[in-house]
Design goal:
There is one protein chain. About 35% of the residues lie in helices and about 20% in strands. By secondary structure, it is of the alpha/beta class. It has a domain of about 160 residues: GMP Synthetase, Chain A, domain 3 (2-Layer Sandwich), CATH 3.30.300.30. The strands form 9 sheets. Strands 5-4-17-16-18-19-20 form a 7-stranded mixed sheet, sandwiched between helices. About 50% of the residues are buried. The chain binds adenosine-5'-monophosphate-propyl ester.
């Protein structure tokens, strides 16, 4: 267990653990006081209204998040307007980086907002944003917020099909995209993906940022270049006055079926949580350079690569490309080049840096770093220690931050000036947040007992206010397991005797690949769309770098395979390739499976339910068994006893388990 150094403690906004006790006494009052520090056009009449499962914070309050970032910033507009808001680092080493001061960003946002108005975008209209990590992505998000349009950002590496589903669900009429972007030195033609993705949607206008040199087709009546749209627009756009409960954005996250869920974030609560969690957890100060490596397509990107640092008047960095491109030391070079003071990344990245070895970044100076953060998946003790020693040089606290797309902002983490920092434990609930760990019957568990992590009223201001167009799903996913008054996180956790929480992992069908969230259901639905596949089962297996990796068991439709194909000796390999292409087509390259196994059948119950649990058990001992040599030596690891597999008597086809087991053994 570690504690803050004197230096960190001296400068931290919060130094005293008294804050937890104070907040606990009356969390509603606590959040009310924090919210009061921000700029409201009109104060709320009620701080927290609870009509389970729905709730609202700052009822009747009127705000605009962009006024809080710019002209009415808490720090004073005159103080911040000439400081850098945003630094953009391109992937191409030879390309110039860009910076935008708060004033410049303000102007760009206003012009883009006026451009959207010109295209007919009104308050509450949904605007799709399908952009790489370039300044226009931030400008687009802010422009929507300025006029009260609801942004729905789609990760630029998502496939056209994934884009389409999101645009259809939101009925977006406008999409903002770019002609392309760089990824590992290659130009990705994003416009082509956008063109494919908007087929069958209500998108009438496509705004295209010219970012790369590739030529793209522009459809005359539909497509408009970003520069043409904003060139004659006024430098000022009046902020839309938003109700605290109005929707700020919709962000999709994996659903249990093929369709993702649109989580809804409300203007008031989200803003308050984004501001204060950033300030206290990352300890934003005037001369900080904050770098969150998360893409804007994910919630971490929304909150900590955009809104939170901006609300805090902090300078932050966004980077277009891959952290290891063109060489594995790129991330280290960026830290040194800009003098990054706070670095926030995922355990997958930390493990990748560790794999490259400390040698590759030895020559870089990390003296500016003062705080390190981790997010998205559990960080194991050894990665934690490595991050702490090799990057933070034992000076920088590691803030392991637990939260979810649904929570809008960080909810569990240590505070840098208070600590403690305990490897692989995320820390304490944020002041004012009540959590518990419950057993299956809903009984609160003592320390060291693992159970379901839940959040109790009054929750936190940034917790999602609904699932877009799907109240049933909202109720079922979050408010049914422990009743309508307890938010069910779907994470298993336990706490130590000091109350520090350790997240063990998901209890549902979510797989976390490099911190990216997928469900087995959505991956299976994508694969099943392939005409040659009859059915499939997807599981997550442990992966040394990515945390988890995707493994597919697929059953092919032999009747759809042509005679010629059947005779081909490579037929199995071909079908496996088809599965990989299919998943990349439907979701994107980030969901590429590590292994595909073609099997005759899948283990199923008599009612036809696929038993993924059994597949997972079959696989796990092989994976963790280590090297071939070790496995051969230790036969028990490859010899699955019935006990290890659990009860097979409920299966309609228990014989298939052995067959799959043989296929697995052969492949390893
Ligand atoms: O299982 C938890 C894991 O990521 C899930 C939420 O994923 P997503 O909505 O994609 O948001 C990720 C970024 C906020 C959680 O239910 N998770 C997130 N942070 C941590 C974590 N697991 C362990 N430690 C964390 N720090």
């Amino acid at each position: 267990m570690y504690f803050p150094t004197k230096e960190i403690k001296n400068s931290a906004w919060v130094k005293d653990k008294k804050i937890y006790k104070q907040a606990e006494k009356n969390p509603i009052k606590f959040w009310e006081d924090l919210a009061g520090k921000l700029f409201w056009h009109k104060k709320w009449r009620k701080t927290f209204l609870h009509k389970p499962p729905y709730f609202q914070w700052f009822v009747g309050g009127k705000i605009n998040i962009t006024s809080n970032i710019f002209e009415n910033n808490f720090l004073g507009w005159e103080k911040i307007k000439n400081k850098n808001a945003l630094i953009w680092e391109p992937e191409l080493v030879e390309e110039q980086s860009k910076t935008l001061t708060y004033n410049e960003l303000f102007r760009e946002m206003n012009r883009a907002a006026n451009g959207l108005i010109k295209l007919g975008v009104k308050k509450e209209d949904r605007v799709g944003i399908y952009l790489p990590m370039i300044p226009e992505a931030i400008i687009s998000i802010l422009a929507c917020a300025r006029i009260g349009a609801i942004h729905t950002v789609v990760f630029s590496a998502f496939s056209p099909s994934a884009l389409k589903v999101r645009l259809q669900d939101t009925d977006a009429k406008v999409l903002i995209t770019s002609n392309g972007y760089y990824r590992k030195g290659k130009i990705i033609d994003l416009k082509k993906n956008a063109d494919d993705g908007i087929k069958g949607t209500k998108v009438k206008k496509v705004i295209v940022v010219k970012h790369t040199d590739n030529k793209v087709k522009m459809k005359k009546t539909r497509d408009i270049w970003w520069n043409d749209l904003i060139k004659n627009q006024s430098d000022y756009c009046k902020p839309a006055i938003m109700d605290s409960g109005d929707t700020l954005f919709i962000l999709y996250t994996s659903g249990s079926t093929g369709r993702p869920k649109g989580t809804i974030q409300s203007c008031g609560g989200y803003m308050v949580q984004a501001y204060w969690t950033g300030k206290w957890i990352f300890d934003f100060h005037q001369d900080d350079i904050f770098w969150s490596t998360a893409d804007l397509g994910w919630i971490t990107g929304h909150t900590y690569s955009c809104y939170s640092p901006l609300l805090n008047g902090t300078t932050f960095l966004i980077y277009e490309g891959s952290l290891d491109w063109p060489k594995p030391d790129r991330w280290a070079q960026i830290i040194e080049k800009y003098g990054v003071t706070i670095f926030y990344t995922a355990p997958t990245a930390v493990r990748m840096f560790e794999k490259f070895g400390a040698k590759i970044f030895k020559k870089y100076n990390f003296a500016t770093l003062r705080i390190l953060g981790s997010v998205g998946e559990p960080i194991d003790e050894s990665a934690w220690q490595w991050y702490f020693e090799k990057i933070g040089k034992k000076r920088c606290p590691i803030l392991d931050t637990w939260w979810q797309t649904e929570t809008g902002g960080i909810l569990i983490s240590s505070l840098p000036g208070v600590g403690p920092f305990k490897p692989s434990f995320t820390g304490l609930p944020f002041p004012g947040l009540k959590t518990d760990i419950l057993d299956e019957k809903g009984k609160s568990l003592p320390s060291n007992k693992q159970g379901n992590l839940v959040i109790l009223p009054p929750f936190a201001p940034g917790l999602l206010s609904g699932i877009y167009k799907n109240p049933k799903k909202y109720l079922k996913t979050y408010w049914s397991q422990c009743g309508k008054k307890i938010y069910y996180t779907s994470d298993a956790a336990y706490k130590d005797k000091n109350g520090l929480i350790r997240i063990v992992g998901r209890t549902d069908d979510v797989i976390k690949v490099a911190g990216h969230r997928f469900t087995t259901g959505e991956l299976e639905a994508a694969i099943n769309l392939h005409p040659n596949i009859r059915e499939c089962a997807v599981i997550g297996i442990p992966d040394k770098i990515k945390g988890e990796a995707i493994v597919v068991f697929a059953v092919s439709k032999s009747e759809n395979v042509s005679l010629k194909e059947k005779r081909s000796p490579n037929i199995k390999e071909q079908i496996k390739k088809q599965v990989i292409i299919q998943i990349r087509k439907e979701i994107g390259p980030i969901a590429t499976p590590k292994q595909v196994y073609l099997v005759r059948d899948l283990p199923k119950t008599r009612s036809g339910k696929i038993m993924r649990r059994i597949l997972k058990r079959l696989f796990t001992p092989l994976e963790i068994a280590g090297t071939e040599k070790k496995r051969k030596k230790n036969k028990s690891l490859t010899g699955f006893t019935k006990e290890k597999l659990g009860d097979l008597s409920t299966l309609a086809n228990p014989e298939i388990v052995e067959k799959i087991q043989r296929i697995l053994k052969k492949s390893l």
